[in-house]
Design brief:
Layout lengths: L3 H4 L4 E3 L2 E2 H26 L19 H25 L4 H22 L11 H28 L9 H18 L9 H30 L3
Antiparallel strand pairs: 1-2
Helix pairs in contact: 2-3, 2-7, 3-4, 4-5, 5-6, 6-7
Length: about 220
Amino acid sequence: MVSIFEKSNPRSIIGLLNVYSLLALAGIVGPIVLGVADLAAGLSEPGYNPIRDSISSLALTPMGWLQTIGFLVIGLLVEVFAAGLLFSIRGGRVFKFGIAILVWFGFELLLVGAFRTDLVGTPRTIEGTIHGAAATTVFWLFPIACLLIASSLRSSTYWKDLFVYTIVTSVLASVFMLVRLWLPVELSWFGLYERILVYNVVIWLEVMAIRLLRLSIRRGHI
């Protein structure tokens, strides 16, 4: 099966950018917005400790709206970026299922942003329960999506060098989640561990998106 990307020369929309470039930019911008929101919200709260405190707890601070926006933006843009991968990589049913899971992953990120977590030590609320379930789903969907998408990277001329990296990312995400099940929220370095888990995800998104951007610009000049 040949991807739409390989069968056509996309027309430029803005300068060197074509439709595939814009889909790639969605994957690049989303993680950056989340990172900036996390940093800005954390710095604005004097008592917040990124090593100790969870990312989600930032939503409970006065500047928590920044964190909410960060999750909503990355959730939406991941879904857009998933379309770029679908059109740009040759793949069969397994690959398409992986893309579908990546879209589901993006939707769960929207839920993480839309519903705030509960403060540690307080009674569980419906909003907090939805947030917790969505966050857990996000971290389990990601390694599955990577594993299924990787099956088509290996056979692609343009993407095969990212096959091993994608598999390693999937394995790391799975291991991090398994260990996380045993970590108490009160752990003094829970925030750091959670950020390692999150940035394993966003770095993969950035790497894939940058590759798509480079290929789209090159393809537009063939």
